[in-house]
Specification:
Helices cover 39% and strands 11% of the residues. It is of the alpha/beta class and 512 residues long. The termini are far apart. The longest helix has 17 residues, at 46-62. It has 18 helices and 13 strands. The protein is globular, with a radius of gyration of 23 Å. It has a 7-stranded parallel β-sheet with strand order 1-2-3-4-5-6-7. Strands 8-13-12-11-9-10 form a 6-stranded mixed β-sheet, with helices on one face.
């Protein structure tokens, strides 16, 4: 490999759109890219994304490149890139999986891996190993298995084993831990003032068994630990965390990916080329700059101008990258049969097992309600990692099959207009049954205030926490926790409401 090839293999590129256009093809060839990460704009339906991924691998092969790492963020729950036509294959969130029982993380990971493999992916940026011990965390929350380090460690390890058994490279994230923050690193730089002793017994704890289980890749966190990191650098750019702690002390030998370098935690302080260079100096193997094609190309050109410096550990990094590609990125010798119906049914069962009922909310509901009201607080996007994915009309559609006279009111979760709020309260006063569906209301004052008013109007009003389970605090820890609203979880909720099964889910986090 020449220097351009070597540097290109250490950059994971992105592009907009569902097709490999001539412009994008020329860009990937010029970049000598090591991998591609897909987002929602790249995906329209299963056949399209499978075709795009085949075209990408063919392009690499024809132009003398090693096979591409083709990656995606498919965590389940609110972080999914599944196309239309495959929505039933979105797993319940990691927190929902934890609520469903100790075998659920492995079962969900197995389904996800099989689905990704048939679509042409070879690496999933999952599982999330962060411990959600901060209820105010705006970016992790139900993406985490829970708040207990031991439980999270076990769940992460079992998920990794299932990914590996099904031929997909898992990438555990976000090292050294993103759970105890109240700032979304997409929007700013989180600062965590813990000492190293605390990190070892809490935040870092799930990563240790993940390494022992053979996880081949890891993603960094854009977090500043001022009481630990000696140079005042976020972990993604920190030799202390990536070389001393991760490589030397913990013995991780796999590939280190950065989180996206266009997130504001990094981009507010460093240009993309500078961030790429600093993270390579720090010990990362693959940078994910994102941004425009020109911006990504600038990163390559800047690194070329710097030359092959000793600080970039070029040869060792390439060995790790090529070893991962040899293991996971080769084309399968034969098409692997896939039981789509069986896997879809398995996810539906996991969603049922995750539904958690607290208190005595008066279930099951009756089909014969005269004037039922549902007030559904929509939340298009809690964090940029969701890409604006919305739950859609599924809940209303399913409830209308049960309640012929249903009045369904959708309100924005983030801002509650006084007129729309008054309209909801007026409708509630004449309702025979009130169902309130919240999304992160404990962190949104307007939503929380209206929810309390609605619940106080009727003793039998039922609260459903569709996202963070902490919303159940608004009704004295009574109601139903859903942990996320992918289709499988919405369908399980409606079944539970009308007595289709007895909910058995257990809270993976304390309500406080």
């Amino acid at each position: 490999m020449n220097l351009r090839d070597k540097i290109g293999q250490r950059i994971m590129v992105s592009f907009a759109g569902p097709e490999l256009t001539p412009e994008v093809a020329n860009f990937i060839i010029k970049m000598r890219a090591g991998g591609v990460i897909h987002f929602g704009s790249n995906v329209t339906d299963p056949a399209q994304i499978a075709r795009l991924n085949r075209d990408l691998q063919d392009l690499a092969s024809r132009n003398g490149l090693p096979p591409l790492i083709i990656a995606v963020d498919e965590e389940g729950g609110r972080v999914s890139r599944m196309p239309a036509g495959a929505q039933q294959m979105i797993a319940p969130s990691q927190m929902a999986q934890a609520a469903a029982g100790p075998d659920a993380p492995a079962l969900a990971a197995g389904v996800t891996a099989r689905n990704l493999r048939r679509l042409g992916f070879n690496l999933d940026f999952a599982p999330v190993a962060d411990i959600n011990n901060n209820p105010a965390n705006p970016v992790i929350a139900t993406r985490s298995y829970g708040s207990d380090p031991e439980m999270v460690a076990t769940a992460v390890t079992e998920a990794i084993k299932a990914y590996l058994a099904n031929g997909i490279a898992p990438c555990v994230k976000h090292f050294p831990g993103h759970g105890d923050t109240s700032v979304d690193s997409h929007l700013g730089l989180p600062v965590v003032n813990h000492l190293r002793d605390r990190l070892d017994v809490v935040e870092i704890k799930p990563f240790i068994p993940a390494f022992a289980a053979g996880v081949p890749a890891l993603m960094t966190a854009h977090i500043l630990y001022p009481k630990i990191e000696p140079e005042g650098l976020p972990a993604t750019l920190s030799p202390y965390f990536l070389k001393k702690v991760l490589r030397q002390e913990l013995g991780f030998t796999g590939v280190v990916f950065t989180d996206a370098l266009n997130m504001q935690a990094i981009a507010d302080r460093y240009s993309a080329p500078e961030a790429c260079y600093l993270t390579f100096q720090a010990g990362a193997d693959i940078a994910i700059p994102l941004g425009s094609l020109e911006n990504q190309l600038n990163c390559l050109e800047d690194l070329l101008a710097r030359g092959e410096t000793r600080e970039m550990d070029m040869e060792e990094s390439l060995k790790r990258i090529l070893a991962l590609k040899e293991r996971f990125c080769q084309p399968a010798p034969t098409a692997t049969p896939w039981d789509e119906a069986g896997d879809s049914a398995l996810l539906a069962e996991l969603a049922r097992r995750s539904i958690t009922v607290l208190g005595t909310p008066g279930l099951p509901l009756r089909d014969s309600e005269e004037a039922p009201l549902v007030v559904d607080f929509e939340l298009p996007m809690a964090s940029q990692v969701e890409e604006g994915r919305r739950p859609g009309p599924l809940l209303e559609t399913l409830l209308r099959r049960r309640w012929q006279n249903l009045k369904f009111i959708s309100l924005p979760a983030t801002t509650v207009n006084p007129d729309s709020g008054r309209a909801a309260l007026e409708a509630a006063r004449s309702a025979s049954r009130i169902l309130v569906v919240t999304r992160n209301a404990t962190r949104l004052a307007g939503q929380a205030a209206l929810v309390k008013e609605l619940l106080n109007l009727q003793p039998g009003a039922l609260l459903v926490a569709a996202r963070d389970p902490y919303d159940l605090l608004l009704d004295g820890q009574q109601g139903i926790a859903l942990y996320g609203d992918p289709p499988v979880s919405i369908m399980a909720l409606v079944e539970a409401l009308f007595g289709g099964f007895q909910p058995t889910g257990q809270l993976p986090v304390p309500l406080e």
